[in-house]
Amino acid sequence: MTQRPAIVLVRGDITEQRADAIVNAANTSLLGGGGVDGAIHRAGGPEILAACRALRASHYGKGLPTGQAVATTAGKLAADHVIHTPGPVWSREHDRGELLASCYRESLRVAMELGARTVAFPAISTGIYGWPMDDAARIAVRAVRKSAAPPVTEVRFVLFDEYAYEEFAAALRATTA
Ligand code: ADP
After folding, report:
1. pTM confidence score
2. DSSP designation for 150
């Protein structure tokens, strides 16, 4: 029987992670932004933006749709690949949970295609895009549990602050209970 991939929580900065792939909470333009996106481009250097521009020119003239994922080089980062996925903006009126789950599922699909064993995620959509942390954590943990499979052996959630860490820990406890 194959071992299920481990889900690990760490507090920290995703740009500093050693992992086969790190995931970027991108926007549909693929051309950089604030938050995690800005941090990844700053730390990884111009190679990542050049790769994103090339992808826009070749495949995503109108941008990468929300909930999809695409990989580039990780430039100077310790990771081998950056997987870019635009999260949905949180809305009180519309339930966009399926789109947020899709970010995790599609990023893992791309990671598995690349042969990645370790994959690090930030808390997608919980910054500028306004998603409540408890709900985002529940969706993230559930989607990863469903989708992560070999060759992935470890999925790491990299949480920037104590609050995010606690909410992800609670979501993890709730789904293992
Ligand atoms: P989004 O636009 O998808 O909401 P953000 O980048 O604004 O994305 O924020 C997503 C989450 O990532 C937030 O919880 C934010 O605190 C966190 N974050 C910001 N910078 C980093 C970083 N360097 N490493 C890990 N998490 C980060």
Report:
1. 0.97
2. T
